Amino acid sequence: MSNITGSCLCGKIEFEVNNDFKHFHLCHCIQCQKTTGSAHASNLFTQPDNITWLKGFDLVKRFDLPGRSISKAFCTECGCGVPYISSSGKALVVPAGCLDGDPKIVPQDNIFCSEKAKWYDEGICAKSFSKFPE
């Protein structure tokens, strides 16, 4: 199996994982909307020890929502989401957007759709542009 690298937006955090993900969920819960600032989180799941931090681990900050099993790890410089160990300790959660290449898995499902943002479906059908529209 090959490795895939990842980084934060500012590049001060870099890591490498084995491209052997078991699950890829698009989570539409309200908490994931808040942590991503978007319609859903795009999270990959793998074994907890499937990561090598190449640089910047000291810049990783973690937030655990009290009373829930919702967590978020991010770069303290740019705020970009980075991998973290699930609160159960059973999985490494990797935000798909922080990977520098394509994982060898596609999203398997959409979860917590009862909490989906009301504007999400309309957004999927909206016009598409390769850059900002004029």
Extract low-pLDDT stretches: none
| Helicity range | under 10%
Give the biggest beta sheet. Answer: 5 strands, mixed
Order of helices and strands: EEEHEEEEEEEH
How far is the first residue's CA from the last residue's CA?
44 Å
CATH class: Mainly Beta
Question: In the CATH classification, which architecture applies?
Answer: Beta Complex
Note the total helix count. 2
Per DSSP, what share of the residues sits in E-state strands of 2 or more residues?
25-35%
Count of distinct strands: 10
What overall form do the CA principal axes indicate? globular
Which structural class is indicated by helix and strand composition? mainly beta
What is the topology, as strand order, of the major beta sheet?
8-9-4-3-10
Write down the CATH topology: Metal Binding Protein, Guanine Nucleotide Exchange Factor, Chain A
